[in-house]
Recover the amino acids of this structure.
């Protein structure tokens, strides 16, 4: 793996340096709008999946995986031919158009059956989430250097968490007033603001960005449409990142499936399920922002991504073991009276592991991409964050159905997730040391 050395400021104390404030502010608004746009419509997707139960998730995930297999090389083909200033806005405009196109399906009851609409919308929202967030982080790793990413990614990530708090809050307050269809317009409007931010950031990067002196820093990356999928097997770094994401999926997807079963068994109507999932999102995202403002903002510039990935994995193991040794994983463990009320171990495990995944692991993981070549950054990173992620969903959800037939219960699934978290800690640390060692060797060679 070749490693780029981009000019940038020293790691410092996790502060925003002079000349960075404007771009950080725009990045902040950008990520806020991207995550808020997704979380406005996420509870609608969740209640549709809860209505059919977790045993149907392999079908949903399988369709999503096929969609990502189609769109991943399509994105790589565009990245090969289009410069950054065109590529990213066009991606967001495509999803804005799709959001608006769904409105008739929700307003005309007879247009699609509830089951068909549920599956199509689940797949589309899942693809929406993967691609718009993946493109955001690709764009961030393309305009900031590694030193800047250590200082600024924890700050920028807070914006996404605030958006993830604002999105379900909007849904929670508006769904009973305006209905479901207008929520799609709210989401599309937020994505329009994000598109404007992309244009403004591109202009700033051309004049002030840390990578502006690199040859072709915003040109089309060249290569072929299959490069991203090939890199999963040929590039050791991307292969390691793919394994890390699959292990993380072994935590997230299992916890999600267990919570879907809890929701379907506990709440009898769509509105109650939607409100419950919005409440869970609010609590999890509140935990994320607390972690980002404290541990991540302090540790990432000083200790590097490896420590954060290990810490996320070890805490996830601890909460999963609570589920393993619980007498009844679906019985209330304690109460959060303000939002979700009685909190079962399965719901607690999802909230903690998801909150730390987005609060610690995601900023750390994406900072690793700042040192790889642009072809890997745009294609390999996108392939990992879309196709690999959804492949993991399919494999894990299908495997859970098979293990259920063998008598594996909630505690057994939590134990499997704990093993995945243990392996993720070791692989995350090795990936960080690999990037650090190659970067140091390149610096010595230049000197």
């Amino acid at each position: 793996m070749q490693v780029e050395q981009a000019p940038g400021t020293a790691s410092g104390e996790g502060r925003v340096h002079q000349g960075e404030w404007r771009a950080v502010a725009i990045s902040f608004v950008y990520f806020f709008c991207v995550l808020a746009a997704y979380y406005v419509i996420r509870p609608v997707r969740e209640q549709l999946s809860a209505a059919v139960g977790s045993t149907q998730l392999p079908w949903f995930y399988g369709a999503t995986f096929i969609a990502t297999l189609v769109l991943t090389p399509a994105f790589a083909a565009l990245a090969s031919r289009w410069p950054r200033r065109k590529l990213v806005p066009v991606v967001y405009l495509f999803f804005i158009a799709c959001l608006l196109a769904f409105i008739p399906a929700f307003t005309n009851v007879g247009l699609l059956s509830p089951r068909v609409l549920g599956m199509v919308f689940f797949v589309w929202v899942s693809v929406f989430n993967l691609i718009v967030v993946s493109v955001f982080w690709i764009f961030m790793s393309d305009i900031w250097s590694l030193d800047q990413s250590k200082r600024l990614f924890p700050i920028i990530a807070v914006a996404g968490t605030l958006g993830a708090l604002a999105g379900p809050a909007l849904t929670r307050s508006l769904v009973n007033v305006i209905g479901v269809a207008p929520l799609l317009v709210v989401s599309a409007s937020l994505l329009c603001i994000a598109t404007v931010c992309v244009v403004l950031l591109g202009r700033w990067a051309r004049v002030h960005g840390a990578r502006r002196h690199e040859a072709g820093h915003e040109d089309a990356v060249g290569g072929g449409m299959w490069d991203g999928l090939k890199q999963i097997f040929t590039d050791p770094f991307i292969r390691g990142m793919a394994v890390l994401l699959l292990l993380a999926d072994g935590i997230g997807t299992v916890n999600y499936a267990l919570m879907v079963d809890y929701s379907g068994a506990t709440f009898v109507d769509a509105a109650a399920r939607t409100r419950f999932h919005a409440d869970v999102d609010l609590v999890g995202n509140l935990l994320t922002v607390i972690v980002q403002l404290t541990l991540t903002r302090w540790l990432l510039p000083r200790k590097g991504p490896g420590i954060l990935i290990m810490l996320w994995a070890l805490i996830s193991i601890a909460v999963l073991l609570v589920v393993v040794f619980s007498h009844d994983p679906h019985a209330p463990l304690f109460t959060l009276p303000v939002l979700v009320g009685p909190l079962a171990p399965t719901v607690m495990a999802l909230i903690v592991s998801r909150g730390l995944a987005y609060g610690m692991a995601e900023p750390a993981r994406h900072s690793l991409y700042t040192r790889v070549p642009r072809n890997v950054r745009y294609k390999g990173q996108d392939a990992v964050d879309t196709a690999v992620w959804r492949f993991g969903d399919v494999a894990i959800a299908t495997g859970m159905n098979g293990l259920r037939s063998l008598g594996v219960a909630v505690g057994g699934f939590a134990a499997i997730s704990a093993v995945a978290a243990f392996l993720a800690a070791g692989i995350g640390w090795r990936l960080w040391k690999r990037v650090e060692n190659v970067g140091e060797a390149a610096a010595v060679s230049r000197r």
About this structure: The chain has one domain: 21-208+220-446. The chain has a mean pLDDT of 82.
